[in-house]
Amino acid sequence: MDTKKLAESLNPVERKVLRVLDNFSSFHDIMKVTGLKDVEVSRALQWLQNKNVVKLKEQQKELVVLDDNGRRYLKEGLPERKFLEAIDKKTTIPEIAKKTGLSNEEMAISIGALKSKAAIEIEKGKELAATITDDGKHLMKHGFPEEQFLKESFPKELLSLNEEERFVLDNLRKRKRIIKVEMSKIISAELTETGKKLLKEKIEDDLIEKLSPSLIKTSAWKGKKFRRFDVKINVPSIFGGRKQHYRRFLDEVRQKFIALGFKEMTGPIVETDFWDMDVLFMPQFHSARDIHQAYYIKEPKYGKLDEALVKKVKEAHENGIDTGSRGWRYDFDAKRTHRHMLRTQGTASSARMLASKGLEIPGKYFAISRCFRYDVVDATHFPEFNQTEGIIIEEGLNFRHLKSVLKMFAEEFAETDQIKITPGYFPFTEPSAELHAKHPELGWIELGGSGIFRPEVVKPLLGREVPVLAWGIGIDRIAMFKLGIKDIRQLFSHDLGFLRNAKVV
Questions:
Q1: Which residues pair with residue 368 across a beta bridge?
Q2: Could you tell me the sign of the dihedral formed by the alpha carbons of 457, 271, 372, 474, in that order?
Q3: Of the four listed, 53, 169, 311, 443, which is most buried by Cβ atoms within 10 Å?
Q4: 455-462 and 347-355 are packed helices; what angle lies between their axes, rounded to 10 degrees?
Q5: CA distance 122 to 105
Q6: How many whole angstroms separate alpha carbon 227 and alpha carbon 209?
Q7: Which own/partner contact pairs does 302-305 have at CB distance under 8 Å and 24+ positions apart?
Q8: What's the distance, Cα to Cα, between the start and end of the chain in Å?
Q9: CA 186, CA 398: separation in Å to the nearest integer?
Q10: pTM, whole model, 2 decimals?
Q11: Residue 293 phi/psi, 5° resolution?
Q12: Does CATH place domain 68-176 in 3.30.420.40?
């Protein structure tokens, strides 16, 4: 934009500030000369910088500013002046205090300050009395150095004070809340080459800022210029409130499952061995448990369980509970099954659902479960993770139905119809399968595991055998793909800069 068009784009506040920039550069001087509020000057300078008219500089400097008493004394007068004005030839200290209304502290300070300037003489008698000296009369006529200092324009840079001003400052700083020195950020504006050229242009004040119905009706706009608006200018970013990126993703996953006809199931984070592993026909001695790397709870160590249900699961482990299976053929430890632990897999919620009185057959259920397993933290591993899993229960279900369900999940969550189903192993399903989907950019990825619950899992919980399709999806990794995140820790980031710019789907 050329300088003529740029001049026509300035708003009233920008124009007012620009006119003084050739003589004044500091923020406070600009504010004083223009009569604008600090927020108006701040915005005007920021806008002018965005238009390459000025270059703003920030410096940390020590500033001298008036404190509460300083502002009061500037308005009402110093206590020592009031003290002098109250003296009539020889006046007692109590009479002076009564006339002036000064506090005991202010009286003491006034006496000390005036004696140091040889402005009064104190005579002892029945009561202390003060008389004014020639030096005091001179101060009354020509003023106190402290008064002159308080009338200066504040804030003042400490380094700009001369020797006499520093002496007065040191005296005032010994008194309460008159003057203070503090570190402050000083903003100054320097005209750029564009700004210097702009000052040579005719900067008009009668530009029309906005078009109104009355302006059109009266034709008052004719013969006048409208202010230009630069819609391409950089402006400060505004970050509105929004949900955390991963939380929003999980909410959308939840809505997808509900739209597919699934009901949400829940379960506690602190589980027992019973619901987390034993119900799922995982033998207490088997190495399959090692991959779960569970965190066990120190206190309380054991939880409460339905002992009748524990007995049925114990029987399934020991002899197969009339399912045609021989079980694991070992002595099930009923005390160990009561141990508290942090949930290691969301399938515990599926087991609780099967044992629930609210279970519907046929029925479709899902859960988004927070799980915990000991792991080394890096870009792809975390000791906490979310697992999305669920079950479909209905008479007559088989592996072909499971395959159709897995295909639907691939289409919904990986946005592809290219899937591979490969054999897998899970202690609680038979057959077991792993789902792989071809991502448009990342190639083949593993989405999760699946299978049909074994009779040894279903019968102790339901009392009879019914086909149950079970599946679990590693939703954290899918979220990373969807959100363009390469470090799993960023899913749970608290970094404000990252959160403001994180992709949201």
A1: 388
A2: positive
A3: 53
A4: 40
A5: 17
A6: 6
A7: 302/272, 302/335, 302/338, 302/339, 302/340, 303/270, 303/272, 303/338, 303/339, 303/340, 304/338, 305/272, 305/274, 305/337, 305/338
A8: 37
A9: 75
A10: 0.57
A11: 40, 60
A12: no
Residue 278 per-residue DSSP state: I
For the chain, domain boundaries: 68-176, 247-501
Select the CATH number that applies to the domain covering 247-501 from these four: 3.40.1010.10, 3.40.30.10, 3.40.190.10, 3.30.930.10: 3.30.930.10
Alpha-carbon span 341 to 227, nearest angstrom: 69
**Per the omega criterion (within 30 degrees of 0), is the bond before 300 cis?**
yes
Residue 505 has a pLDDT of 65
Instruction: Locate 315 and state its tokens.
Output: 């029987």
Question: pLDDT, tens digit, for every residue of 153-196?
Answer: 888 889 889 999 999 999 999 999 999 999 888 889 999 999 99
In this structure, of 66-75, 271-280, 432-441, the range with the lowest mean pLDDT score is 432-441
Task: Give the span between the Cα atoms of 412 and 435, in whole angstroms.
Answer: 13
Measuring CA to CA, which residue among 412, 426, 447, 7 is closest to residue 197? 7
- Check pLDDT > 70 for residue 117: yes
